[in-house]
Structures are given as structure tokens and as C-alpha cells.
């Protein structure tokens, strides 16, 4: 890497240069490579399987799956508006939660009603769709009637400023990244509300993103 950078070429290709480093050194090197790139005004094509590297280092990301480009854009574009389910599932830590739901009147839910969301648009013609919500866009509620998700605690990971909870909902595992230091026990039932503006919808057949007019969104 040092020889490549010292040659002051206008464009460089880096193919997973940090893959053999330990976590702390990788974090430090990400910062240094980004700083050098800015100082030298060099274009770097950086290949990585690590989505954290892509998000933190890239000005633009081209996300590939089996040799096909899924989406090109700035890191937050891929995070906020993934074009398909693959992009949504690849970007973000912890991984996004995905539920296959049925249209039931003005609601989207599973048959056991442990998952209930308002239907996103009056013009929705599909009978089923994928709904995805990131763990960090969930919050606790004590009001069962307000909850979008009802689950049983499987595991609790204390991160200091946040609590990462793994839950079971109708034999499906999902995760919630909650603010603060929360005390929970395995087997405990908790109720969660999703931030409605952060929900993602995908077609069941094509797995492409579904967009709805905000005026029609409930």
C-alpha cells in the first residue's frame, strides 16, 4: 500500500487491503487511508466485503451481488433507500429485520397478529409484501395496543449506551437496538413500536423496493 500511495498515481485499486488486520488496527487504518485520499486528491477504487468499510470510507458505493450491480449511490442513499431486499439486508449493522406480511383490510400483519402495521397505501394491490425495519428504528412501549411487534426475549447484549435485544416472534428471530441500559430476562415478553417513516417495503416476487405516496401512507 505504501509503495502504491508513494507513486502518486491518479487512480489506485485496493483489493481488501485490511482483511488480515485485527479489528482495532482496521479501524485506525480506515481513518488513515481516507485522510491520505483527501490529501493526495487520488481516486481509489476500493474492493471490500465489509459493509462497515464501504459505509465509512466510500464517497460512492457500487454494491454487487453475483457479479451484478444492485445499486450505486452515496452510503446513506443505500442505507435510507435500498433499491431491493438484498441491498437492505447487506447494509446496516445489526442486519435489518424482514417480515413477510399479508394485507388484511387496512393492516399488514401475520396470521397470529404478533406483527401489526398500518397498510402503506390505499392503492396497494399486492396481497403480500416484505416489510423491513432496522433494529435501531425500534423502541419500547408499555402499551400493547400501540405495539407493532410483540416478541419474547432470547438474548440481551449490553453495549453501554445501547442494549441489543434478540427476540423471537412466531419462530422467527429479530433484533432491536434500544437506547440506554435496559434490564430484561430471557422469556420476557416486550412490546415494540417501529418508526413509521423508516419502514421499507419490498415486492415478494421481484424483491424490488415499493414506493408509496406519502399522502397515502398511514
Question: Helices, strands, pairings?
Answer:
Blueprint: H1 2-6, E1 11-15, H2 23-40, E2 43-47, H3 51-57, E3 61-65, E4 68-73, H4 75-80, H5 85-90, E5 97-104, E6 107-109, E7 116-118, E8 128-133, E9 138-141, E10 149-158, E11 162-169, E12 172-179, E13 189-194, E14 200-202
Parallel strand pairs: 1-2
Antiparallel strand pairs: 3-4, 5-6, 5-8, 6-7, 8-14, 9-13, 10-11, 10-13, 11-12
What key attributes describe this structure?
single chain; 218 residues; alpha+beta; 14 strands
What do these coordinates show?
- The chain is α+β, with helices and mostly antiparallel strands.
- Helices cover 19% and strands 37% of the residues.
- The chain has helices at 2-6, 23-40, 51-57, 75-80, 85-90, and strands spanning 11-15, 43-47, 61-65, 68-73, 97-104, 107-109, 116-118, 128-133, 138-141, 149-158, 162-169, 172-179, 189-194, 200-202.
- The strands form four sheets. Strands 7-6-5-8-14 form a five-stranded antiparallel sheet. A five-stranded antiparallel sheet has the order 9-13-10-11-12, with no helix packed on it. Strands 1-2 form a two-stranded parallel ribbon.
- β11 and β12 (172-179) form a beta hairpin.
- It starts with a helix and ends in a 16-residue tail after the last strand.
Amino acid at each position: 500500500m505504501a509503495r502504491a500511495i508513494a507513486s502518486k498515481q491518479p487512480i489506485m485499486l485496493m483489493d481488501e487491503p485490511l482483511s488480515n488486520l485485527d479489528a482495532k488496527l482496521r479501524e485506525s487504518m480506515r481513518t488513515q487511508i481516507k485522510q491520505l485520499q483527501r490529501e493526495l486528491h487520488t481516486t481509489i477504487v476500493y474492493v471490500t466485503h465489509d459493509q462497515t468499510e464501504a459505509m465509512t470510507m466510500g464517497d460512492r458505493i457500487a454494491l454487487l451481488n453475483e457479479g451484478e450491480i444492485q445499486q450505486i449511490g452515496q452510503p446513506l442513499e443505500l442505507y435510507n433507500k435500498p433499491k431491493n431486499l438484498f441491498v437492505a439486508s447487506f447494509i446496516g449493522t445489526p442486519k435489518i429485520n424482514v417480515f413477510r406480511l399479508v394485507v388484511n383490510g387496512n393492516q399488514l400483519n401475520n396470521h397470529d397478529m404478533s406483527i401489526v402495521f398500518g397498510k402503506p397505501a390505499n392503492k396497494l394491490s399486492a396481497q403480500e409484501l416484505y416489510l423491513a425495519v432496522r433494529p435501531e428504528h425500534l423502541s419500547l412501549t408499555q402499551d400493547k395496543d400501540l405495539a407493532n411487534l410483540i416478541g419474547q426475549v432470547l438474548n440481551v447484549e449490553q453495549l453501554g449506551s445501547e442494549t441489543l435485544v434478540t427476540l423471537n416472534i412466531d419462530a422467527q428471530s429479530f433484533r432491536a437496538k434500544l437506547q440506554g441500559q435496559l434490564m430484561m430476562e430471557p422469556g420476557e415478553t416486550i412490546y415494540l413500536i417501529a418508526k413509521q417513516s423508516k419502514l421499507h417495503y419490498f415486492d415478494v416476487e421481484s424483491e424490488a423496493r415499493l414506493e408509496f405516496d406519502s399522502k397515502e401512507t398511514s
